[in-house]
Predict the structure.
Amino acid sequence: MKLNYFLTTLISFFISSSVLAADISVSEQYVRETIPGTTISSAYMSLSNQSNKPVTLTSVSSTISKRIEMHEHIMTEEMMKMQQVDSIVINANDQVVLQPHGYHLMVFNLQQPLQADTEITMTLHFDNKENVTIKVPVQGLK
């Protein structure tokens, strides 16, 4: 009897987690190939929140780097500047696009150069304790 209760509880937990994971979707993700001689890159994607509550991206991790920061470009005194942000809010039933000249991810101290036509793995960490692991294609320099 206790085993059945345990299994039912465990299955319910996984079903609940799957529903939560379905609230956040990621699309159009890519990371830029590194410029020879550098150890930094940038990553972009679309984040969609299908839930009725705002969700906040609080951090990003990957085995390719121990330092991935969220940044934004802002216009100050008629100059475009990049600054780090602590989080990115995706409002309920809305989308945030990480793109050049807007929100984006900066990947520092890469363990190895990123080469076009390969892919990396990143994990997005949200304030609702949800983690979303994604495959991110490396896009060649244009």
User: Anything to note?
Assistant: Residues 30 and 137 are 5 Å apart (CA to CA). The two ends are 62 Å apart (CA to CA).
